[in-house]
Amino acid sequence: MAATAHDAVSQAADKKRSSVRALEWTNFFLADVQAGLGPFVAAYLASIGWQAGAVGRALTFGGIVTVVLQTPAGWIVDRATRKRLILVAGSIVLALGAVLFALSGRGSVVYTAQGLIGLAGPFLGPTVAAITMGLVGSKLFDCQFGRNQGFNAGGNLFAAAVIAATSHYLGNRAIFYAVAILVLPTIIATLLIKRDDIDFDLARGGCEDGKAEGGDKAVLLNLAKDRVLLAFLACAFLFHFANAAMLPQLGELLAHGSPKAAAPFMGACIAITQIVMLCTSAYFGKFANQNGRKRILLAGFAVLPFRAALYTIFHAVPALLAVQILDGVANSIFGVVSILVIADRTRGTGRFNLAQGALATAVGLGAALSNTFGGTLMEKAGYRTSFLALGGVACLATLLLFFAVPETVHGATSSPQPAQG
Domain residue spans in the chain? Predict the structure, then answer.
């Protein structure tokens, strides 16, 4: 079955093969750029003397900018005909943010860099998913998006190796210059995607025949009444509220004890996570295509509480690194299947990217509040209490998913109809 799904993607993409390959490599190189601006920021700031609460507030600021822009970004992506330009511009803005981190650790500079990162981030994920849908169509989207996530994981793994080597030989500050340099291959790969190969109607979640219609107000009202979609957005919020602070907290914990070891440790954590994602993303996409979304999502959500508990039990670095396998499983499942759920609920509405923006808003808000919550709790009650509290939130997310979100694929539940107007 796996081979058949892979062959289906290849056959359907025959006429667009070069664009599909370029899209996959765009995912790879774009991951390189974004990987250096994730948990490494927390470890870097802690290594230069920032306290946990201050690190959390800085990360939260960037998260707030991201949250504010996520849904408008999806709205823009739905209407943009030059989607490649969005990826190019976003990559350049991320590079500028990285350079600012390299230049100074002062509060004003760090917050400006976080603002730039928060500005660019909301456009990247929805644009990649939109281009994917526009290239292969909704029937093959599941499998191709899983392949994209595999390339993304490979890019993160490559970036982690580059960043670990850079920090070892050139210091932590040089990490961000390396990230900026990686923007060049990202832009080249993006421009190799042929603009004419991207079907505009499919890219925004329209019907295969391009006849999806509906006024904005009617569509928004229709989506706002979709209880399944709203429940899933709440699940996504709780998932990332529980998940986002865990890895940065590990980095900060190690940075305060051994600043020089912080970046290599984070590199190893990310490498393990991305190896798992590299090996599983395509499989999870195919599994969700053949068996539905809910079972695999429940598995991904359920590993989070165990991960949080294990962080309080194990203290040796090798054991903590082993726990990152669970991080890879959870993030691989959520990264692939959450977008498939959004595609299920918006098929035929022409507002796929708008709903992606809403999902990203829920994710960004959860992640931003997670960093503030985790950082504050660490200062007040210690790392153990913080991890256990995050694990409790993860339990709540799993229960909400189980009881409030039914299966969404293959007509298992009624999907919202395209709004007319």
Answer: 13-404
